[in-house]
Amino acid sequence: MSILLFLKLLVVQFTLYSPIPKVNIKVSNPLDYVDLFYGTEAGGHMFPGVTRPFGMAKVGIDVVGDGDAYSGFAPHGHVNGISMMHESGTGGAPEYGVVSQLPFQSNFDIRNLPSLTRQGHDIAQVGYYNFNSTDNIIVEFSGAEKSGIFKYTFPPESTNPQVLIDVCHHLAAPGRPQWTQYFVNGSIESNKDLSGYTGYTTIKGGWGGQTPWRIYFCGKFNNPAISIISFENKHVEPNKLSSSTNRQNEPMGLVYTFNQSQSIIESKVGISYISTERACQHLNNELGEPDEYDLMSVVNETQQIWLDEVFDKVSISDTNSTLTSFIYTSLYGSHLMPTNKTGENPYWAENYVEEGNPVPTYYDDWFTLWDTFRTMNPLINILNPIRGSELINSLIEIYKHDGFTPDGRSANQNGRTQGGSNSDIIIADAFVKNITGVNWSDAFDAMVQNAEVVPPYWRDNFAPDSSTKQGRGALPDWLTYGYITRNFSRSVSRTMEYSYDDFALSVVAKGLGNDTAYEKYLRRSSNWQNIWNFDKDISINSYKGFIQPKKSTGEFDYHNYDPLSCGGCYWNDDEYEGKPIEYGWTVPFDMTTLISFIGSNETFITRLNDMYALHGHNPQIVDVGNEPSFTTPFLYNYVNQQYRSVELIRYIVDRHFGLGAKGLPGNSDSGAMQSWLFFSLMGLYPIAGTTTYLITSPFLPYLSINLPNTNKPLELIATNLTETNIYISELYVNGEIYTQNWIDHHTLFDIEGCLIEFELSDIPSIWELGDEPPSPGHFKR
Fold first, then answer.
1. Largest Cα–Cα distance of the chain, in whole Å?
2. Distance (Å, rounded) from C-alpha 168 to C-alpha 245?
3. Helix (H) or strand (E) holding 507
4. Which residues lie across from 117 on neighbouring strands?
5. Are 215 and 183 in contact (CB under 8 A)?
6. CB under 8 A, 24+ apart: contacts of 286-291
7. pLDDT-derived band of residue 8, with 50, 70 and 90 as boundaries?
8. Which of 715, 780, 700 is nearest to 754 (CA)?
9. In this structure, what DSSP letter does residue 552 have?
């Protein structure tokens, strides 16, 4: 950055929330700004425990008595376990919450298993968690990739420090019993000297309808216990070293009692899907020497990993603590799922090979790609192309072993596809952004499988018309009619999603030089046009033309159709989690055709305005907390009215996002919401599956992204930025005036870096005199 630009930055006063008179180019410690409780309440379902980027172990507390705790955590209620595995930010229903410990000091009663009541607020930092119980037990823990470390400090007057190992423990869904998990069977055995234990637990069910799956564990204590009891099937037996049961949801496990003089009990636990031996290996390999119980060294190592892999890649001005917290908390929330389980899929024989062929890359807990393909995966492809490559290779391996790539997947099993095969878009996004280390021919084969082969039937009671386990369940209609009829659920939203998916196939086919496949899938990507109804009898605010269900005869189906309603917006409706009028905008690959269907730029703008309360429409039509409308507020760029996108993004962030536990406007959806927020604050928005980024206006005076494969960073500098100075008056890219409201990926992330300078004012203007953003999927029927 030049001296002149640096001096210009020093005079910026950024006052979106409060005026602060100085600009620092580097935040002193990003870890100080990460709020682990962000989005844990009000349906955000964020996981606030301890993990590493995409780590398999997600160590956290499990709370009962405060609703459905999807990530285990709830602000109130009782802690009934500290378990090793969780998911983060999901809807549907809770998964995991398995392999649990719990310290306690009351008499053990199998009819009323112990729990802890917290006093005050929990403490959570990257790599560290702490809470105090009302009986003065201090609980601290941290974690590594496949293991966790615990420290329990009992009060000096405690007469019987104890630790419960509850093999049956798992997260349940009392609010959605149809999707709850069940304990199937388990077993645990203590070392003879009472210094540790090994075992397994088997779970089934959950949102994805998983068949029984098994997790193995290995636990060690810093000192042996002085006594033990075993409990199973409501029976308690002192001095027994093992416990097992085949009774569903019957409690079973062990209770260790320690010497009264041992006020601090420390423990390590490793987990594995393969064996107890491998769980012990993870424990020993990740947490130091066998006799070393250094909680803080694990905390420090975990924090350093987060800094190296995630936070240190982004530098910002820390003029505003709210925005600084938004940036680094969003980065954290975007790097939790899917989880890296390489070598841990028991269904793949290669995982048992200790030497010889390399173990295939494998990520699990895609929950779900329907949520993450628009912003979360494009963010990973920017910040961490190595992870981006691993994710694509994992999708390929899942296809090779299981027959189809997933949309939703947990516990090593595909399960639940909400719409299309949106892994296709994730693959295309990585392809066009030159992610290396991928066999793209194999990747394209996986995409073709989704596009051409009807998946085996898997009954879903919520949508029994077709399989929702994987692939495209409504493919027969797609291949026959070029759209989905009401013979299949989610007919409208599936039609729109299958179109985007086929566009993704055309992108990869073109890049591979397969012109025949390119032309085929480009034509198929235009199938959304088949359900656009120009009927003049249906109008809203005097404009006409909407997507609508269609019969197999080619006639539009008017029964119970309203562009402003999706009925229950659920599995058996025409549209999933979005109204027809919302889904009508979901073709960013072919906005040229959409604008022509709408009729004029002016009508396009009016219709966009009417989607949001900012422009006087009350109530607001769009659900900003749901992914189908993620891209909609940026679409003014396609008619060179970029300033309107700027206004609307500011409105959405200011009105719908906040700090703290209730700061998200809905489920995080595995980081989808946080990645949307990050791009919005950055002032650039990716069109997934293309190299296009729509330019809006940054919220910060300075942001840079530092990548290992470039000589210089991407730098974004906003001069004259204030609470009202949000509009671009002039834009410079690498020192030259720039007149387009979009920019290409390869310009942004050139090996020699990229400098974008935003000159801002308080006057809206149409500064973009260049071409509108491209429509690479344009195919007018």
1. 83
2. 9
3. helix 491-511
4. 78
5. no
6. 286/144, 286/145, 286/146, 286/147, 287/144, 287/147, 287/149, 290/220, 291/222
7. very low
8. 715
9. T
Task: Please give the full DSSP string across 344-381, using - where no structure is assigned.
Answer: --TTSGGGG--SSSPPPP-EE-EE-HHHHTTTHHHHHH
β-bridge mates for residue 201, sequence order: 186, 215
Phi, psi of 619, deg, nearest 5? -80, 165
d(CA 56, CA 339): 5
* Strand ordering across the sheet containing 264-272: 123-125, 128-132, 138-143, 147-153, 264-272, 210-221, 196-205, 181-190, 242-245
Q: What is the pLDDT of residue 23?
A: 38
Query: What is the three-class DSSP state of 197?
Result: strand
Rg over CA atoms, the chain: 27
The domain spans of the chain are: 1-33+311-321+587-781, 46-308
Q: Which two tokens stand for residue 68?
A: 């459905």
- Tell me which of 3.40.50.150, 3.30.2080.10, 3.90.110.10, 3.40.50.1100 is the CATH number of domain 1-33+311-321+587-781: 3.30.2080.10
- C-alpha 269/C-alpha 5 separation (Å) is 52
Distance between CA atoms of residues 689 and 428, nearest Å: 5
- DSSP notation for 8-39: HHHT--B-SSS-BS---SS-S-GGGG--TTTT
Strand ranges, E, within 222-279: 227-232, 235-238, 242-245, 252-257, 264-272
Tokens representing residue 762 in the block: 């308080």
* pLDDT one-digit tens code per residue, 674-704: 999 999 999 999 999 999 999 999 999 999 9
Measured CA to CA, the distance from residue 437 to residue 393 in angstroms comes to 8
Mean pLDDT over 708-732 rounds to 95
- SS3 readout for 714-781: EEEEEECCCCCCCEEEEEEECCEECCCCEEEHHHHCCCCCEEEEEEEECCCCCCCCCCCCCCCCCCCC
CATH 2.70.98.10 matches 46-308: yes
| Residue-wise pLDDT tens digits, 110-160 | 999 999 999 999 999 999 999 999 999 999 999 999 999 999 999 998 888
Distance CA 34, CA 628 (A): 28
